[in-house]
Amino acid sequence: MNEDDYGVALGTQVIRFERLLPGPIERVWAYLTDSEKRGQWLASGVMPLYVGGEFELHFNHRNLSSDPAPTPEPYRKYDKGHVSRHRVTRFEPPHLLAFTWGDEKEGQSEVLIELKQAGERVRLVLTHEKLPNPQQQLGVSGGWHAHLAVLDDRLTERPTPSFWAIFAELEGVYEKRLPKS
Q1: What torsion, rounded to 10 degrees, do the Cα atoms 143, 57, 44, 95 define?
Q2: End-to-end alpha-carbon separation of the chain, Å?
Q3: For residue 52, is it left (φ>0), alpha (ψ between -120 and 50) or beta?
Q4: Are 137 and 15 a contacting pair, CB within 8 Å?
Q5: Number of Cβ atoms within 10 Å of the Cβ of 153
Q6: Taking a C-beta distance cutoff of 8 angstroms, is the pair 9, 15 a contact?
Q7: By C-alpha distance, which of 131, 176, 164, 175 is closest to 16?
Q8: pLDDT tens digits for range 77-97
Q9: With 0-12 CB in 10 A as exposed, 13-18 as middle and 19+ as buried, what is 107?
Q10: 75-83: long-range contacts, CB 8 A cutoff, minimum separation 24
């Protein structure tokens, strides 16, 4: 993996990723906001295209890969998918999208995705902030890294390896890279 692909921890409550993706910016924006396209790299679910809109993300990690590898044991509970609720907090097409992550009980955090045209490519900056504890930071770090790798594969039309295999490897890497407290 490329060293530049790793998320940067800003304390224990924030992780930030940057990627240069194939453009144009409208294409990348569609992969963030269109349920069918987002379902190819993250999760499907109709997102209201306005601030305050609530939506569900329907995760099915098996569908993210062209590799039929079995799900590793620790993640088998997600084999049939899972659903999470979110709310749009910022919406400035095609440059900025922010939404809540998690629930009040676990500690709600926020995801901010910024896009900027960079020649023929698009700079994506994803910042996940207000993470309640280092365990959450660890989980979202490996998760976002793996999901962004799948997004890059989709945009460049490369085959995608098993999501869970990518995630399992990254979880161990981030455990060593992230601050402990």
Answers
A1: -80
A2: 26
A3: left
A4: yes
A5: 18
A6: yes
A7: 131
A8: 888 889 999 999 999 999 999
A9: middle
A10: 75/164, 75/167, 75/168, 83/45, 83/56, 83/57, 83/58, 83/59
Give the separation between CA 142 and CA 137, rounded to whole angstroms: 9
Domain positions in the chain are 3-177
* Helical H segments across the chain, by residue range: 25-33, 35-38, 134-156, 163-177
According to DSSP, residue 20 is labeled: E
Superfamily of domain 3-177: START domain (3.30.530.20)
Lowest-confidence pick of 41-50, 56-65, 120-129: 56-65
